[in-house]
């Protein structure tokens, strides 16, 4: 994490953002001897530092104007909500660990949108899978996760092909206990990591270090002291300005940013210069940066396609309530362990942290009713002089009433929602706005809910749709597009190697370059694209 300023004052590669694009590029550039600076608006999180209590979670949102420097940023547009991360490691800190390739047949359906062949990604998929330690959820742990059997039975009964999810997680070997030490050869935090304890807290940040997040993989490699020039990662650095500067026949870029001090709340303006700049702030962050800097003083030759091609990746959220007494216990295991394949979309079992089960218990009306009866009966016995000093069974009966906590399972859906394509722009106050085809999205969701309802009936569940569906709104944890790839400046903002048309030395390497929905969890595809882009960034 050490800071370094080079004598020349000019970095070879400056990366904005440290998610599945930025961390990959930073790593590969540093390994090739380049002087690399990563500017990340969020802060470092070591295993053990992720918030868990309600009070801690209140400060775990991102809004520097309110002196909040937390992990989650929530966007709310007119017809679409989005959740993104803010921290060193980007979305890997809060995603559900699924590292799945985009199905080749879905790529072929969008072949006219992608300016590269699927085969060109294969070697880069393999490189990312190796670096992230991707493996299927181990079969020897299935019996420890009650929801797996129920989901498998329901998916098979609904005629869906189901398979274990490929996860970027370190699990214990069959002959080792949960929470066993991980020997990763050292990481950027210098802390000990432990294997997965099946606690269901993946989406809040893993306090065991079992998730193979980008800070523990790519960034640990990028900052390794064994490199000739280790990369520098500077947190709490919020980039706002990107200005080309002529240096003879060469173009450099001056990057202006705010550096936040979370202790004092102060922010200072800073600038850095670099020969190459890689924007990797995510689909929303990068698009906002490019739109903000699309002016004669900064980036005056950007494609008219900027802001187009937004996709929510077909995301949808539902809840399945069991119609029988079989326990689901969705707080056991990683958040996602199974993937069921339907026609044009995927259905994945969901999970939640343990405290969510306690919250559900506290909100259950039957729990309150039984608790009131217990108190009334206890007081009545005391009044007549026959107090019951052992109330263990009565308290157990109160807690047993929490059916929702033990029998509800979230399900996550994503897929080829190719008709719902939105666009982004800045409003008069320079805030990001979105136009979203609500009616097209609802037609896609009707197909999704028919599949989930079929799975629910096969597993003796009742389907409850997510809050976004009740409000006729979209919601996504996988925003894509905004600076799409294209073969020419008329087709896209960047070329098939992430180079921004009209601005030599400026690149984009994140989900904003994806020209359509990936359909599967997009993290691995974004990492594979960044692996591909990095080869050109280093060579140019």
Task: Please describe what this structure looks like.
The chain has about 550 residues and is α+β, with helices and mostly antiparallel strands. It has two domains: about 10-355 and about 405-540, FAD/NAD(P)-binding domain, CATH 3.50.50.60; about 365-400, no CATH class. It has 14 helices and 24 strands. The chain has helices at about 20-30, 55-60, 105-110, 120-130, 145-155, 220, 280-290, 355-365, 365-385, 390-400, 405, 440-460, 465-470, 525-540, and strands spanning about 10-15, 35-40, 60-65, 70, 70-75, 80-85, 135, 160-165, 165, 180, 195, 230-235, 235-245, 250-260, 265-280, 315-320, 340, 345-350, 410-415, 425, 430-435, 460-465, 475, 505-510. The strands form seven sheets. Strands 1, 2, 12, 13, 14, 15 and 24 form a seven-stranded mixed sheet that branches. Strands 8-17-18-19-16-22 form a six-stranded antiparallel sheet. It has a three-stranded mixed sheet with strand order 5-6-23, with no helix packed on it. A hairpin with a 6-residue loop joins strand 14 and strand 15 (about 265-280). Helix 1 (about 20-30) packs parallel to helix 14. The longest helix is centred in the last third of the chain and has 21 residues, at about 440-460. It is globular and about 95 Å long. The two termini are about 25 Å apart. Mean pLDDT is about 90; it is low at about 1-5.
